[in-house]
């Protein structure tokens, strides 16, 4: 009888086991998009605290680095035209440095010094709108193309040689911010998390016993084109012609402008890059989109990225070998694939 | 030829009535999934099995389901189908369990097996016929654990009931019938 | 109450099976749900967003079951069944939450993006 009751209590305790998986999810708006924070393995109160701290980080960075709302960056841009050394706070300076490194490595295809061109095209607005700018204005900018090499950076200040140089970090800020957020979460004692800012996402740890499983949006259809399991510390960025654009007289103009032509880059639908650094992944996704179907391996090599997916306008998927090994296509039939080694 | 009910017949009828009462009472209990019951009426099935053999137990169980559903007004409804399915599964399981070698099972062992079979049978029917939805599977482990618990409890109650029956009929064979 | 040797063996075996049931069938769900998947006998599966408050009738053999979506949660508000167990299930709010009206052959599960992918890069 005694053993009967032992079993009784054992079974009661089994059914009393908690069903809850410790996954905390939070969302907020920043950088013009929906930011999603997932934290695994922390009790709800601690996770909420950490999440709120990250939200504050994002709001601060959005405020300070906004390219067209009044911000520390717009103030800097106004002063840059005066060709003097301007002192800059440490956080913004770090962003400028990273952007400069990546821009030079990308052969200036990623060019955050081209704020004027973005403004000319109407992309420095909450809602991009046409019409496309007149060719003469575009040409004028291209003759003295502002590049990051025109910017000189010291320990605490910057100076510009080019009066047309205006900084716009749209192509790098979200990836960079996501990375900083993950690092902050780590300092707060979080071991497993995702910080996702739409096209830029950084992961830490795992989802319990399995890796974080990420879906990549199809550039031409609702739904997922491919998925990947990310390792702790990896960052994934996707740049697509569907993200920011306007239509004018039946033609679509997207926001990924080619500094060589002054017009939206042609031939590519979307690029996804996986790297261990958020800023790198974000900047590389932009640079490789512009590089296009033939030149992307060279630029990938120059920027030290080895996991690249490029989907061209015909729907063919171009992959690096390292990406091919990691990626799993989710559509039937799977797209035509071309695997190209990075030199 | 006259059919005269023996004392044993009376006792079996009484047990069947008890089973029906339990079945009806059980229908008032809430459950995680409509129609799925812990199968407390198995107490009677197992007691009858041990004392009177498998065929009588099968008869009592099916009678219980039929009469119970008629009285509840659920005859041929989904609830009835689940009840019948559960009863059939446990009866078949008990039939197989009877064939175990050696001294065999006691009421607690029979009851535990019958309860698991009862729940598995009900769940299988609910899943196949009514809600082929993958989320339902989440409930299965909990239902089976609860069924095991109820099975052990039912077995204890059945064993107590059997002791009572044995003392009420001195001289009758209170040993396990094979 | 004495247990025979066979009783012990059966009980130990059944207990040993229990953990397997949990690892095999139990997928603990939690997380934000953003839509509901409604299954009704003989009809195509419907997906409804939880973002907009609304009420919807799902017809079954017994009549119409009334579902209500409010504040990102869903519940059975009315149903033609006898026991009204579906209504007693209350509000569903997390991905994986589930309620059903068996007699009327209607079931609802909440699904979120989190159930398939942890996040989507877009």
What is this structure, in a nutshell?
With 343 residues, chain A is of the alpha+beta class.
Give the tags:
heterotrimer, B: 178 residues, mainly alpha, Arp2/3 complex 21 kDa subunit ARPC3, globular, disordered C terminus, C: 122 residues, mini-chromosome maintenance (MCM) complex, domain 2, 4-stranded antiparallel beta sheet, 3-stranded antiparallel beta sheet, 36% strand, extended
Explain what this protein looks like in three dimensions.
The complex is a heterotrimer of chains A (343), B (178) and C (122). Chain A has 343 residues and is an alpha+beta fold. Helix content of chain A is 36%, strand content 24%. Chain A contains nine helices and 17 strands. The longest helix of chain A is centred in the C-terminal third of the chain and has 25 residues, at 278-302. The radius of gyration of chain A is 23 Å and the shape is globular. Chain B has 178 residues and is mainly alpha-helical. The longest helix of chain B is centred in the last third of the chain and has 29 residues, at 140-168. Chain B is globular and about 55 Å long. In chain C, the strands form two sheets. In chain C, strands 2-1-7-6 form a four-stranded antiparallel β-sheet. Chain C has a three-stranded antiparallel β-sheet with strand order 3-4-5. The chains are: A alpha+beta (343), B mainly alpha (178), C alpha+beta (122). Chain B binds chain C through residues 30-31, 33-35, 77-79, 97, 100, 102-106, 108-109, 112-113, 116, 126, 130-131, 133, 135-138, 140-141, 144-145, 148, 152, 156, 159-160, and chain C through 1-7, 10-11, 14-15, 18, 21-22, 24-27, 29, 39, 81, 83, 85-86, 88, 96, 98, 100-103, 105, 107, 109.
């Amino acid at each position: 009888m005694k053993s009967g009751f032992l079993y009784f209590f054992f079974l009661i305790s089994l059914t009393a086991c908690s069903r809850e998986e410790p996954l905390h999810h939070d969302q907020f708006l920043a950088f013009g998009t929906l930011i999603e924070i997932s934290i695994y393995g922390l009790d709800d109160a601690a996770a909420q605290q950490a999440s709120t701290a990250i939200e504050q980080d994002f709001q601060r960075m959005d405020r300070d680095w906004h390219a067209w709302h009044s911000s520390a960056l717009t103030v800097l841009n106004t002063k840059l035209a005066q060709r003097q050394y301007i002192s800059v706070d440490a956080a913004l300076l770090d962003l400028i440095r990273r952007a400069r490194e990546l821009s030079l490595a990308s052969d200036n295809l990623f060019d955050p010094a081209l704020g004027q061109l973005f403004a000319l095209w109407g992309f420095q607005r909450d809602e991009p709108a046409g019409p496309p700018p007149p060719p003469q204005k575009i040409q004028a900018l291209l003759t003295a193309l502002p590049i990051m090499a025109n910017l000189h950076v010291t320990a605490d200040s910057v100076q510009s040689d080019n009066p047309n140089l205006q900084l716009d970090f749209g192509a790098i800020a979200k990836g960079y911010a996501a990375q900083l957020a993950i690092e902050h979460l780590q300092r707060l004692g979080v071991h497993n998390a995702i910080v996702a800012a739409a096209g830029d996402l950084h992961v830490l740890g795992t989802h319990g016993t399995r890796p974080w499983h990420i879906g990549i949006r199809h550039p031409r259809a609702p739904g997922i084109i491919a998925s990947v399991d990310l390792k702790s510390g990896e960052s994934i960025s996707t740049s697509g012609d569907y993200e920011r654009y306007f239509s004018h007289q039946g033609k679509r103009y997207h926001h990924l402008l080619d500094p060589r032509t002054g017009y939206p880059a042609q031939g590519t639908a979307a690029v996804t890059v996986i790297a261990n650094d958020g800023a790198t992944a974000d900047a590389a996704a932009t640079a490789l989109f512009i590089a296009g179907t033939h030149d992307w391996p060279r630029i990938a090599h120059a920027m030290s990225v080895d996991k690249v997916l490029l989907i061209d306008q015909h729907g063919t998927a171009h992959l690096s070998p390292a990406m091919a090994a990691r990626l799993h296509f989710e559509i039937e039939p799977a797209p035509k694939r071309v695997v190209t080694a990075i030199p | 030829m006259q059919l005269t009910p023996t004392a044993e017949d009376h006792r079996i009828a009484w047990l069947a009535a008890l089973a029906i009462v339990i079945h009806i009472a059980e229908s008032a209990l809430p459950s995680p999934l409509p129609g799925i019951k812990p199968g407390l009426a198995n107490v009677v099935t197992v007691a009858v099995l041990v004392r009177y053999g498998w065929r009588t137990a099968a008869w009592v169980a099916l009678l219980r389901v039929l009469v119970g559903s008629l009285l509840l007004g659920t005859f041929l409804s989904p609830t009835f189908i689940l009840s019948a399915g559960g009863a059939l599964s446990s009866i078949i399981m008990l039939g197989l369990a009877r064939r175990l070698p050696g001294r065999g099972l006691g009421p607690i062992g029979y009851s535990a097996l019958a309860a698991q079979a009862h729940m598995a049978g009900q769940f299988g029917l609910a899943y196949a016929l009514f809600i082929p939805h993958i989320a339902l599977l989440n409930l299965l482990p909990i239902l089976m654990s609860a069924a095991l618990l109820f099975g052990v409890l039912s077995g204890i109650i059945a064993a107590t009931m059997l002791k009572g029956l044995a003392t009420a009929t001195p001289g009758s064979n209170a040993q396990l019938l094979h | 109450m004495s247990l025979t040797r066979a009783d012990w063996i059966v009980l130990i075996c059944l207990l040993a099976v229990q953990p397997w049931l949990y690892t095999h069938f139990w997928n603990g769900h939690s997380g934000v749900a953003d839509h509901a998947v409604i299954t009704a006998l003989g009809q195509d599966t419907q997906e409804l967003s939880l973002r907009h408050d609304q009420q919807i009738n799902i017809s079954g053999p017994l009549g119409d079951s009334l579902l209500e979506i409010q504040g990102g949660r869903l519940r059975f508000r009315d149903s033609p069944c006898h026991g009204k167990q579906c209504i007693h299930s209350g509000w569903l709010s997390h991905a994986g939450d589930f309620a059903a009206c068996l007699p009327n052959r209607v079931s609802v599960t909440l699904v979120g993006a989190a159930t398939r992918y942890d996040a989507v890069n877009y």
